[in-house]
Structures are given as C-alpha cells and as structure tokens.
Amino acid sequence: MDNFLEISGQVFAKNGLITAFTLVGLIICLSYYLSNRFTKGRLHGSAIAISIGLLLAYLGGVKTGGQKGLADIPLFAGIGLMGGSMLINLAIVSTAFGAGLDEFRKSGLAGILSLSLGVPISFVVGALIAFSFGYSDPVDITTIGAGAVTYIVGPVTGIALGANSEIITLSIAAGLVKAILVMLSTPLIAPYIGLNNPQTAIIFGGMMGTNSGVAAGLGAVDPKLVPYGAMPATFYTGLGCLVAPSVFFLIVKWLML
C-alpha cells in the first residue's frame, strides 16, 4: 500500500498540470453539490469553489512556509502553472469571444462613466481606510488604495512606488477581500439593481472592476452575462495600473503635505 501511494504521488507530481486540472475539477464538482444541496443555488458553486481555493492556498502556505500557497507542495506544483499569467490571460481573452459588440455600443455613455468612476471611487475608499488605520506615508496610502481597486493594481503600484513588502501584501489582501465581497453579494443584489441584461452587466463590471469577483458573481446570476462584465473589468484593471502610481499618487502626496 505504501509503495502504491508513493508511486501514485510520483506520477501525479510528474504530471503536474493534469493533476491541477483534476483537482480543480473535483473542487468544482464538490462546490456545485454544496451549493445545490445546502443553499438551493443561492450561493453559486463558483463562489464556493473560489473560497475553497483560497482556503487551500492558505493551508498550503502555512504548511510549507512558502509564497505560492498549495503550489509549494510538490504534488500540486502544477497549480502554479495552471494559475499562472499565461492561462489567466488566455481565459480573459477567450471570455471576450462570448460578447457582442452591439451590446457594448448600447451601453454608451453609461458604460464609459462607470469605468471612469469605478476606479477613483474604489481607490478613495481604500485610501481612506488606510488613512483611518494610521498610515500617513503617501506611498503606503496609494498602494493600499490601489489594492482596493484590484489585487493586481495594488502590487503593480507598490512596486512602481517602492513600497515595502508588507504594504504590498496588504494591498493584495484588500483586493482579495473586495473580490470575495463582490462575488458573494452579486447574486443577492442583482434583482434589486436590474442586473439581468448585457447593458447593466457592462456598467456593473465597470463599477466593480475586480475581474474574478465580477465573473463569479455574474456567473451565479446568468452565465451569459459574464463576458459583458468581464470585459470592462479587464479595462478597469489596466486603467488602474496607469493612473494609480501616477495621477493618484501625486494627488495623495499633495493632500498629505
């Protein structure tokens, strides 16, 4: 039995990417079962799956003391490749093929305004929270505020401004909290804000911005809406990476004089 487990472990480790897809598939099956069995679909399976993924990443990091979560365990090293930038970018690009350009045109000025307002509002909320917790360095406030935009904008801004690793970690945590809140709350608020058509999905994605949270939340409402929310959310991240370490930092620096 011991030899069987040892040989199996070696096989799984040598075929890391296949192991990663298998593990993710099992988690998704379990998540959708839990969703249907215990929440009657009110809490979407994708939301549960992401929560389980975050928990496993935490447990993997605690066990190994590493920085890549579950991917630091040799048996699950393929998760690092599966969750890497190559496949993430492929998934983002492929999402766009499910959207119709006519729907984007119909959103018109509202879609543009949602994107223009979403980034500053998220940044201001994050910056105010950072200030309320006693941070006074413009670099720290800007980095944490950028994290509230998305957990990608946070570290990009922190590295650009020379923030220390602790502040960058806080910015990532702020973005993750936002993504989870958006993911879990979207199905609950959708009936009250008319989130049931491509136009409102575009506006919602532009306001919220967190790609993973918006995609998971809209998936719980209607999978057909996911491309419409994900596309402006992707532009949201790009816009945040441009303005947070430049325009927003200069404004924060001026205010803190």
Automatic annotation (TrEMBL):
Presence of the UniProt keyword Ion transport in the record: no
InterPro entries named among the record's database cross-references: Mal/Na_symporter_MadM (IPR004691), Mal/Na_symporter_MadM_N (IPR018402)
Keywords, in A-Z order: Membrane, Transmembrane, Transmembrane helix
Malonate/sodium symporter MadM subunit N-terminal domain segment(s): 10-255
Membrane-traversing stretches: 12-34, 43-61, 73-97, 109-135, 141-163, 175-195, 233-256
Cell division keyword on record: no
Domain of life per record: Bacteria
GO MF entries: sodium:malonate symporter activity
Pfam families given in the database record: MadM
NCBIfam families: malonate_madM
Protein name: Malonate transporter subunit MadM
Organism, as annotated: Candidatus Glassbacteria bacterium GWA2_58_10
UniProt lineage: Bacteria, Candidatus Glassiibacteriota
